[in-house]
Amino acid sequence: MGTMTHLVWRQLIKEKARTFTTILAMAVAATLTVATLIGINSARHSMYQDNIQNTGGLQFVLSKVNQETALAIQKKADISESVRYQQQGQISFADQVPNQPDSPLLMLPKPALQRLIQPILLEGRLPQNEQEVMLAQDLISDVYAVGKTVAAQRNGQHVVLKIVGSYRGYAGLMASDGAVTTGHFDGTKNYAVAAAFGNYGNFYAKLKKLTAQYHVGSDQQRMNELALERAGESRDVKVRAMFVLLVIVVLSVIGLVSLALIYTGINLSVQAQTQRYGLLRSIGATPRQIRQSVYLQALTLALPAILLGLLAGIGGLSLAFHELNRIFKASGNTFQLLLTISWWPILVSGFFMLLVTLLAARRPAKRAAQVSPIAAVRAQSASRKVSQRMLRQGMLGRFLPTPIAKLAYKHYRRLGWSKVTMMTTLALSLMIFIGFTSFFRGMLTFSDETISRQADVTITKTQSLASANFSFNPRRLPGVKRGTVTGTTQVGLKNAPQAFHDRLNVIVVSDQTFGTVFKDQPTIITGSRLVTNSKTGKRQQQWDTPKDFAGTLELANEQSSQKTLTQPMKV
């Protein structure tokens, strides 16, 4: 232990109260940093886990590979879990929808059914034998409903399968127009592998390496892009840049608050040790050694503060997540926050706090090095420079009622950078409080569903629109104040105008609602959102469909014998 280190250590032990106060101030700053970084990482991982459940914990599918390739992929060291299935035929729906391509008939062993189909089961149950089949939701119709049969070609043979259920074709890794059965593998072709890497970090680079090794084309790949995007593995550079920018902004705000807190503690300690620094100068200590002693003192205090901040941040997040999960569960929301502790938030927090500590100690170290031996003997600190502006009474001082108030205001004007530090600390602390309050309020109202939460209870039933009872009035039920029955289907758009997609979601309501609310007029319901213009940097309102559209949309009903229906549509 060097001489300066020994002196710093003795001084810290001697002034226990001041040392504890400074460590506490640093620990508050460290807690903010640790809680923010681990909180962001945990929120992203929680959203990833919530979305990956739709694909049974599997991240991607590589299809149309042979049996040898499928087995080799499953044995790769970086593949943590996987299942295989096989396309064994096809089903034709041309009798219902002309020019409709044949739907693939996929054979999934029971483990694969549980992993890939059970999470997206919409109606009915899973197939239990080779004579049963499930259809994607878009293939379900009055003719091909649950409980009925469908003809298929399987391994070159004509078979009749019983429809036992349907699945959400757009929610998982399966084909959106597929049919799923169970059974046994046959042959060496048309295999598919659904798998997940042990770590989703750098996902697309690992997938590119894997597909290049086994010559798998881009048209043979499907992945759970939503879950990967929530985990920060987005292909969109803008999305990744926005996340990095968010972290930088949050750390900048926390850094300013931490800088103010740590600077105040170190500065007060330096002012209290003016005589000590002067005496060190008188016995031969150089200004450089004095500065080093202040830096060493700051770093010595920072180490236990970082440890306390780590414990307080993780403990506080654990309690907050537990309470939020309890509220989510009570409100019927299945989303759960998972506390995820990884090495990078801890390392970044430690490095960030050490950097902020050194920056905060820079000015006090410079001031300590300027203390002269004479000033130390007189027990005086270096005289502060007072400008003419500080000596003036000021406009506010003229209206203060008492001499004590005027004296306090005069002293405040002469504080210099101290008052700036104090005001900055208060302002940024308020900013962080408002920010975290808004964050938790947003988490309380978070929902991964796209439907509105205005209704207290929403009941969903899968059936054909023709059999739905739209005349039923839920208000007749005891305790129900308001309610309505709606149906949803999807139709195609022929010759779609610009800014429209090739398909349109149609909401069906009762005749009474159609007449009273929509005036017996087919109506387009559109929405808008605020987006930032990448060129001007200004926020502007963007509509999902043209707000001022007035014309005719040609709807192609692909699920009935009436192929095209033309109706005027009003926005």
Low-confidence spans: pLDDT under 50, at least 5 residues?
446-453, 559-564
- Identify the strand order in the major beta sheet: 2-3-8-5-7-6
Indicate the radius of gyration in whole angstroms. 34 Å
Shape: elongated
Terminal CA distance:
79 Å
Tally of DSSP β-strands: 16
Number of helices: 15
From the helix content, strand content and strand pairing, which structural class follows?
Answer: alpha+beta
What percent of the residues sit in helical stretches (DSSP H or I)? Answer: 40-55%
Bin the strand percentage.
15-25%
Main beta sheet, described?
6 strands, mixed, barrel
Whole-number tally of structural domains: 3
Overall mean pLDDT:
79
Write up this protein.
- It is found in: Cell membrane.
- The protein has 571 residues and is an alpha+beta fold.
- The chain has 3 domains: 3-50 and 239-383, no CATH class; 59-223, no CATH class; 469-570, no CATH class.
- It is built from 15 helices and 16 strands.
- The protein has helices at 3-14, 16-52, 67-74, 110-117, 203-213, 225-230, 237-272, 274-282, 287-330, 343-369, 373-377, 388-391, 403-413, 417-444, 511-516, and strands at 60-65, 79-91, 103-107, 121-124, 132-136, 149-154, 157-167, 179-181, 191-197, 221-223, 487-494, 503-508, 528-532, 539-543, 550-556, 565-570.
- Strands 2-3-8-5-7-6 form a 6-stranded mixed barrel.
- Helix 2 (16-52) crosses helix 9, helix 2 packs antiparallel against helix 10 (343-369) and helix 7 crosses helix 14 (417-444).
- The termini are far apart.
